[in-house]
């Protein structure tokens, strides 16, 4: 009989394989829809944007599932920080659809960062999603970048519900959540994945007026 750990790993690999197969269907149908639009001479920027976002999200999910197959699967490369963050914002607009929430960006000059693009963007999107969920009705989410010597500081703030002092001490713990249906793994994984890319995620403050998460990462001139 296989040891319990090996059995769990084997089951995880099988589940990941099956989910990735289903995710690939989304990608294929996006291409089918796109080809039919072209065939019928239909131009619709909103549909094009939706298809692009679905395919990008599918790729992020697919690459995340690879984690269940291997522990050594980072594929870092030099990437434009502003371009990566800007794409995260674009993908996150789906979370604020029909909500009175505005996302504002203020980027410093562009620099390169050495990251696994999929894992880095997954972390940014997770933080943005949490920010949206912290806002009850009307609010603002701000994403700012600032270059400090050889460090890029990315701050993501929102004016939603504050995180209590007790919760602030536990927020990055595995399994901790303030949501009724939360798994408590999101911020924990974000912190771990960023640390693996020599970046640091921290909660700078959380008050009734503002909650700010910050990512510090080494940067390089383009």
Structural notes for this entry:
It is a single chain. The protein has helices spanning 4-39, 45-65, 81-92, 117-134, 165-170, 186-195; strands at residues 77-80, 100-106, 112-115, 138-148, 151-158, 199-206, 211-218. The protein is an alpha+beta fold and 222 residues long. It has two domains: 4-68; 77-218, Heat Shock Protein 90 (2-Layer Sandwich). The strands form two sheets. It has a five-stranded mixed sheet with strand order 2-4-5-7-6. A two-stranded antiparallel ribbon has the order 1-3. A hairpin with a 4-residue loop joins strand 6 (199-206) and strand 7. Helix 2 crosses helix 4 (117-134) and helix 4 packs antiparallel against helix 6 (186-195). The longest helix has 36 residues, at 4-39.
Mean pLDDT metric: 86
Uncertain residue segments: none
- Number of helical stretches of at least 4 residues: 6
Cα radius of gyration in angstroms? 19 Å
Assigned CATH superfamily of the largest domain: Histidine kinase-like ATPase, C-terminal domain
The CATH topology of the largest domain turns out to be Heat Shock Protein 90
Structural class computed from helices and strand pairing: alpha+beta
Q: How many β-strands, per DSSP? A: 7
Share of β-strand residues: 15-25%
- Biggest sheet layout: 5 strands, mixed
């Amino acid at each position: 009989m296989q040891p319990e750990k090996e059995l769990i790993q084997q089951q995880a690999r099988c589940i990941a394989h099956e989910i990735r197969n289903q995710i690939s269907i989304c990608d294929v149908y996006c291409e089918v829809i796109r080809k039919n639009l072209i065939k019928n001479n239909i131009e619709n920027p909103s549909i094009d944007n939706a298809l692009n976002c679905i395919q990008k999200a599918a790729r992020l999910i697919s690459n995340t599932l690879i984690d269940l197959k291997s522990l050594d699967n980072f594929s870092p490369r030099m990437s434009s920080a502003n371009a990566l963050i800007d794409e995260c914002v674009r993908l996150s607009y789906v979370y604020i659809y029909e909500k009175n929430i505005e996302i504002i960006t203020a980027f410093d000059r562009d620099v390169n960062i050495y990251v696994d693009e999929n894992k880095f963007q997954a972390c940014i999107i997770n933080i943005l999603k949490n920010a949206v969920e912290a806002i009850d009705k009307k609010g603002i989410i701000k994403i700012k970048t600032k270059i400090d010597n050889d460090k890029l500081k990315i701050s993501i703030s929102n004016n939603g519900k504050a995180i209590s002092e007790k919760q602030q001490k536990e927020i990055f713990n595995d399994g901790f959540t303030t949501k009724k249906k939360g798994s408590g793994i999101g911020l924990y994984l974000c912190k771990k994945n960023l640390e693996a890319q020599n970046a640091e995620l921290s909660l700078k403050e959380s008050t009734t007026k503002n909650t700010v998460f910050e990512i510090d990462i080494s940067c390089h001139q383009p």
